[in-house]
Specification:
Number of strands: 2
Oligomer: single chain
Strand order of the largest sheet: 1-2
Order of helices and strands: HEHE
Largest sheet: 2 strands, parallel
Number of helices: 2
Amino acid sequence: MGIGKTMTCQILKNKLLNCVFLDGDWCWDMHPFQVTPETKKMVMENICFLLNQFIRCSAYENIIFCWVMQMRIV
């Protein structure tokens, strides 16, 4: 968090042609914030829906998707 992901995506969006920027955090911007199996499933489905809609849209050639994904290195 706080390392400049959103700023980097905004810069890329302005440099690329026919570009859209989607921030996965928007799908978690709720009050009260709750992480449950139900909300996790809902957020993943919403993200997939949004991404697929832009992928299908011929007006956009570039899609920038920003989201922090936890990765476990063993």
